[in-house]
Fold this protein.
Amino acid sequence: MLPHPEFAAMMLADGRLPVGAHTQSSGLEPALLGGLDPADVPDLVATRLATVVAVEAGAAVVARHRVLAGLPLGDVEEAWAARTPSEVAREASRAVGRGQRRLCRRLWPGSAACTALTPLAQPSRPVAVGAMAAAGGLDGARTARLVAYDDVQSLCSAALKLCPLDPAETTEWLLAAGPAVEALVAGVAHLTEPADIPVGSAPLLESWQHRHGSAPRRLFRA
């Protein structure tokens, strides 16, 4: 029996889900090490939603559709990788994607989602999330919203570990991101083909992530 889609969405958006997402700061730690002023974190949130997160939400929505249609996920993975030129970012995403696939096998054994994820050597986070969204009964809008919310809340949560901030401030950031999240959802919720996944470029964010990989002192993987 499928869980209620709203309940499944809340579960998959929970930062305590055992998939290794606690190792990710949604690019915040690399940005701060690269010189970003903590006061400009809301701008980082907006930039990610318009670029990196749009790609990931689109990939998740298309992956969800293809699982439900009984189609393979290899070309979705390739489309996501082509839009994620940084190998550092790809590896960080796949580390969490492996945890997502493991959880999918535990929660929905024998499902179409598990079958679709099995041939992928290292599924990316958005492709694995899209497959799990299919298993959990989420529609395209819920899937896109899940990906966007997860990115923003991961960044806000990481900010409390990296910056001297009032927790109420990061909560304000999360709430303020709502309109941008909904705009993203409206733009990708209907996608069904890998070629239609958005193409968003964020060269500075990628540069920060590359330097972060060799930083001697860091709390997060990415």
Q: What stands out?
A: The mean pLDDT is 90. The longest helix spans residues 140-162. The radius of gyration is 16 Å.
